[in-house]
Amino acid sequence: MPTTEEQSVKTACWSCGSGLSAGAPFCDACGKVQNPAADVTYFYMFGLPRKLALDTAGLERAFYKLSRKLHPDVYARASEQEQQWSLEQTSLLNDAYRTLKNPITRTEYLLRLEGVEIDQDRSAENGAKKESRVPPDLLEEVFELNMQLEEMRMNQKTGEDDPQLRQDLERAKTQFEGQMADSDSQLQALWANWDAALDAQDEASQSGAKDTMVALLDRRRYVRNLVRDVNEALGA
Q1: Candidates 1.10.3860.10, 1.10.287.110, 1.10.287.1770, 3.40.190.10; correct CATH number of 4-101?
Q2: Tell me: the pLDDT tens digits for 158-202?
Q3: Which 3 state secondary structure label does DSSP give 26?
Q4: Gap between the Cα atoms of 80 and 94, Å rounded
Q5: Smallest Cα–Cα separation from 1: which of 37, 51, 36, 38?
Q6: pTM attached to this predicted model
Q7: DSSP per residue, 87-100
């Protein structure tokens, strides 16, 4: 369910005057689309609590159901204001679905709702480059990888090919991809900790889960960027 704060804020439909929760995309009584609320959360749009272990199949079904109700074609003969609202609600719904269906962006989004500042450039899943601190346990591996990457770049400039070097980079890529998969598994375990702490209203456990998730996401981003660098060097 939505948070208590979201549930408690009520408003009225602009068309029929029926009561509805603030941020509701349309009126259940008359079906009219509503003006999008600036502070509505992605979880609230789908009637979900701020939990991380989501039923993604259920999320998809809810998305398509809401999409049909909010589609601009439904409001083709409505007022210009309603048409604009349907476009804005549809855009918001699409953003919410894209964010929540991806486990990494879902986690980052929840952390931002919880007041954790996440560097958008560093956290983006689009491969945006940004320098970050090397995890201590990866110092030796990263040093060796950087030497190999530099050698590969030099070979590319001179037109040379070193099959052994290419094989070493492929091996490193596989290793780092395995570390990313391990991070994802650890993250899912932390979801259970967060969700249980939320149900128990255990703020101390929630705080601990948040801190651990942030550290794990930082490490995952760094490793993901290493995989990106190897792919670039290999021309993948």
Answers
A1: 1.10.287.110
A2: 888 899 999 999 999 999 999 999 999 999 999 999 999 999 999
A3: strand
A4: 21
A5: 51
A6: 0.82
A7: HHHHHHHHHHHHHH
